[in-house]
Structure formats: C-alpha cells, structure tokens
Specification:
Length: 379
C-alpha cells in the first residue's frame, strides 16, 4: 500500500533449513532425535525405537547428544519416565562402543571406550550433583534473605524517605540560593565547573520516588526469576531421582548406586532440606522392594544350593540396610522442625513398606490405546 514504509530486513533473518552450528550434519541428527522422542508412546515404541537407530549413531558426540535429550525428556515428563527407561534398556543392547574423543592415546594401549551404559551413568551422576548444588544455592540464598532481608528493606525505606525529604527541602530553598554565577569558584558542591557553566539541578522528590520504585520493581523481578529457577531445579531434581529409580528397575544401574543415593539424601537427619525428603520418598517408593529383596545372578558352575545361600545372604544384607534407613526415617517423621507435608510423606513410605511395598492406589502411566479402551471408565 502506498504511504507505508518498507519492511525492515535483518541480516540474521530466519530461513528454513539453515543451521546454527559448525556441524550441520550433527545438528540435523539431533533435530531428528528430538522429533522422534516428541512422538514416542507405548503404541509406536518399537517403530520409533528403530527410527532412532536409523538416524545413524556413528560417533560418540551423537550418542552423547541423544542421551542428553532422553534425559531432558524424562526429567521434565516424569509421567513417561518408565517409557524412557525402557528405551534406554533397549538402546544399550543395540548400540556399539566408540572411542572417547577426550582421552589421550597412550603407547601400547587402546583408547578408552565409551558405550551407552557408561555415558548414562556419567549423566546420572552429573544431574544428581547439579541438582544438589542448585538446592544448596537456594538454601544459602534463603538463609541470607531470612537473616538480613527485613533489616535491609527497612533501611532502604528509610533512605528513600530521607532522600525525598531532602529533595522537598531543596525545592523550597531553591529560590533562596544564590545563582551559580554569583558563587565563588569551588563552591558548587565540590564540582569543578568552568566559568559560566550552570550546575545541574538537584533531583526532585518525584524523581527520587520514581528511582526508588524502579529499584524495587527490579528487585521483585529478580526475586521472581530466582523463584522460577528454584522451581525448575526442584522439578529437575525430583525427575532425576524418579528416572534413576526406573533405570535401576530395568537393570541399568547397580544396587550400590541406589544405596549411595539414599545415604546421601539421609545424611542430615536434624535439619534436612525439603527437596532431599521429597527425593528420598520418591526413590524408596520406586525401588524399595527391589532393594529389600535384591536379585542375585548365579555364576558358572554354581550349584542350586550355593545360589540359594547367596540369595539369602543378599536378602539379609538388604533388609539390614533398609532397617537402618527406616530407623532414621521414623526419627525424621517425628521431627517438629519439618513441615507437616514432609512428615506425612515419610509416614506414607513407612506404611508402604509395612504393606509389602504395595501402593494405596495404582500409579497411572502411559498405556496403549487398546488397553485404555478396556478400562471401566473408558467411553
């Protein structure tokens, strides 16, 4: 249309098919992985599982990128956590090993190998430590805010009031003050002014109030951003614990790793973090039964009697460790410093163990369409 300005064209305008990294082939593979994972359901599991392999995982960096994407999906979609654990269980059997690009080649020795299981373990540990560090940062921030937050806020309000009063007084006395040209040199509030230069007027009360309001607004926005990051870290920590539990159920993680996680979450039984209690309850409700009665794999040449003795010893050791955990859990459930919500969560886990690890209500997860049609509430 006539009279309208021409559209502005930027040099960095988006164009379909363009890449944003130096490796367009790798970027295309990661984009394909993302598209396939977004469509994953129990109905098309086998077909999409094969599609992931058909993309072509020929380098370690491609495998690392796939594992990172699966982790992100599992952590932020805990409803599909079991499905992503099953996907890892299937993929680790069908993917080859790759040379570690970061390991140095030593004479007479082969380069260190990377496989799906090793990379998955590294990612689990990385996420667990990252979540722990994020929760520690949140606790430190809240402690500092609780100690000096109210005093700082009161001091800031007093300062704002003082500044506003000074500005009002300055406005009233402005006519009484001599002009800058009549003042001797060096008396303009210590500022070095050239001859004939007029000093800037002092800020008015309205300007000071506006500046204080803008500062408070920026502080509120910063607090809101910190709260959003805290919520994201909590969701990720809970999702990671749930995913670790599901990976253990599929045999991807060892029993020692599970005990290490539980012991780390139970290390502070006086003033534990709320996130640790939630993660502990989530993990125990997922893997408690398997930890209490661990499965033992027999070795070649072992008799049935030897295998039975080994299973009894493993079960006895598992019950001994679980008894120690639940002694501490019972003490925590009687800790008045904890929120009622957390104490009831701990009591629910104690009750679940007493019922043989049966849950009160069956957990609803993703189902195949034909299974959903047979449910009593289906239309």
């Amino acid at each position: 249309m006539a009279g309208l300005p021409a559209l502005h064209k930027t040099e960095s305008a988006f164009k379909a098919g363009t890449t944003v990294t130096d490796d367009p082939e790798e970027e295309s593979k990661q984009r394909a992985f993302k598209g396939i994972l977004n469509k994953l359901t129990p109905d098309n599991f086998e077909r999409l599982n094969q599609q992931l392999l058909d993309v072509g995982i020929t380098e370690a960096k491609t495998l690392i990128g796939l594992i990172a994407q699966v982790f992100d999906k599992a952590l932020f979609e805990p409803h599909f956590c079991e499905l992503y654990s099953q996907l890892c269980f299937v993929l680790q059997k069908r993917l080859p090993e790759f040379d570690d690009p970061e390991s140095a080649q030593e004479e007479g020795k082969q380069k260190r190998k990377l496989n799906f299981r090793r990379l998955l373990l590294n990612k689990c540990q990385e996420e667990f430590e990252k979540g722990d560090a994020a929760m520690n940062a949140v606790a430190e921030r809240e402690a500092k805010k609780g100690q000096g937050g109210e005093e700082e806020e009161q001091d800031e309000d007093d300062k704002d009031d003082d500044k506003a009063d000074e500005a009002v007084g300055a406005d009233k006395d402005k006519d009484k003050q001599p002009a800058a040209a009549d003042k001797p040199a060096g008396e303009n509030n210590g500022a070095q002014l050239e001859e004939g230069e007029i000093p800037p007027p002092p800020p008015t009360a309205k300007q000071l109030r506006d500046a204080a309001a803008a500062e408070k607004r920026a502080k509120r926005l910063a607090d809101a951003a910190a709260a959003a990051e805290e919520l994201k870290a909590r969701r990720r920590a809970l999702g990671n614990i749930q995913y670790i539990g599901q990976l253990y159920r599929f045999g991807m993680l060892t029993e020692n790793i599970m005990h290490s996680c539980i012991q780390r979450l139970l290390q502070d039984d006086q003033n534990p973090r709320a996130e640790d209690i939630e993660c502990l309850c989530k993990l125990l409700s997922t893997v408690g039964q398997q930890l209490e009665t661990p499965q033992v794999k027999g070795k070649a040449g072992m008799s049935q009697q030897q295998l039975a003795d080994l299973e009894r010893a493993a079960a006895g050791n598992g019950r001994k460790l679980m008894d120690a955990y639940f002694e501490r859990i019972k003490r925590l459930s009687q800790n008045d410093k904890l929120e009622s919500r957390l104490r009831f969560m701990l009591l629910d886990v104690v009750e679940q163990r007493s019922r043989g690890w049966e849950t009160r209500r069956k957990k609803e997860g993703p189902k195949k369409i034909e299974v959903g049609r047979r449910l009593p509430y289906a239309c």
